[in-house]
């Protein structure tokens, strides 16, 4: 009987240890960012492409107010309501962080305290970013205004308020490569769409656990607000030319002389600041992506 109890205890310890290992945080190597020097001018373009101000800046504010990244925007979901945090360079934001901590947040979804971030923060896409671009973004964000506004806690019911389980979620959904591969995938456009601009986060449907259904990549999805849907932008539904798409990303005007609305207004506010070659690269990628009917 004693041997049986010891064996059961040993098995239990192994199960617990295995479970803790599976839900652990996975961070970058300690020296991954040590040799990187950020370029704030280059970081301004990463900031624009990523649309950071649309989630963290003052909604509907002036250009200066949009750059006060106090957060507080509500993101409704099937799992509860998430609130975007203060990411300004203040003590209430991320002013006390190091570049290493910022990089771990961006590409690993791990906080400086070693906790998992919820994937309402699109680190699934950002995990594909080059660390030099992360360093450039970090350098630019240090130049922005400070805000002392405290970050608002998320409003999530049990069990979604338990962050540890996100370790298992990451094992299932964190990508180990690009969605679109092969010679037909425009490299620059793929980097912008799949990583920095995280277009798939809105335009791709999700499964019951909130993971992207990549077989329907960019094929449209329900609007998280519950009003309407996010459109299918693959060639299976969007018949615009690459030039039409590039112009839309610059001006907000469609080929039918309509104008962008909803959250695309903020997206285009960012893409309009990019070099013309980058907008064309995004357009070329969208035209090359497999059609979803």
TrEMBL record:
SUPFAM superfamilies: Cytochrome c. InterPro entries: Cyt_c-like_dom (IPR009056), Cyt_c-like_dom_sf (IPR036909), Cytochrome_c-type_DH (IPR051459). Keywords: Heme, Iron, Metal-binding. Residues 38-145, 184-290 form the Cytochrome c domain. Signal peptide: none annotated. Coiled coil: none annotated. PROSITE patterns: CYTC (PS51007). It comes from the Bacteria. PANTHER family: ALCOHOL DEHYDROGENASE CYTOCHROME C SUBUNIT (PTHR35008:SF8), BLL4482 PROTEIN-RELATED (PTHR35008). This is Cytochrome c. It comes from Tropicimonas omnivorans.
């Amino acid at each position: 009987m004693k041997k049986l109890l010891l064996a059961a205890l040993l098995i239990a310890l192994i199960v617990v240890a295995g479970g803790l290992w599976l839900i652990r945080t996975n961070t970058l190597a300690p020296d991954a960012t040590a040799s990187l020097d950020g370029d704030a001018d280059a970081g301004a373009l990463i900031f624009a492409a990523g649309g950071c101000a649309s989630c963290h800046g003052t909604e509907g504010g002036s250009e200066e107010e949009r750059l006060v990244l106090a957060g507080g925007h509500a993101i409704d979901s099937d799992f509860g309501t998430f609130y975007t945090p203060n990411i300004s360079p203040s003590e209430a934001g991320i002013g006390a962080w190091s570049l290493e901590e910022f990089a771990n947040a961006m590409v690993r979804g791990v906080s400086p305290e070693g906790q998992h971030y919820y994937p309402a923060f699109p680190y699934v896409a950002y995990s594909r970013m080059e660390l030099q671009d992360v360093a450039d973004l970090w350098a630019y964000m240090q130049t922005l205004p400070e805000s002392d506004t405290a970050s608002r806690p998320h409003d999530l019911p049990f069990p979604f308020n338990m962050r540890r389980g996100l370790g298992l979620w990451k094992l299932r959904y964190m990508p180990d490569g690009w969605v679109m591969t092969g010679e037909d995938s425009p490299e620059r456009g793929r980097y912008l769409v799949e990583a920095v601009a995280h277009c798939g986060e809105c335009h791709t449907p999700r499964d019951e656990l909130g993971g992207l259904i990549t077989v329907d990549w960019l094929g449209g999805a329900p609007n998280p607000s519950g009003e309407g849907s996010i459109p299918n932008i693959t060639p299976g539904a969007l018949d615009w030319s690459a030039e039409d798409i590039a112009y839309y990303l610059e001006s907000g005007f469609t080929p039918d002389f309509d104008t962008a609305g909803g959250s695309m207004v903020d997206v285009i506010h960012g893409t309009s600041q990019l070099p013309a070659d980058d907008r064309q690269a995004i357009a070329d990628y969208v035209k090359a992506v497999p059609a979803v009917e």
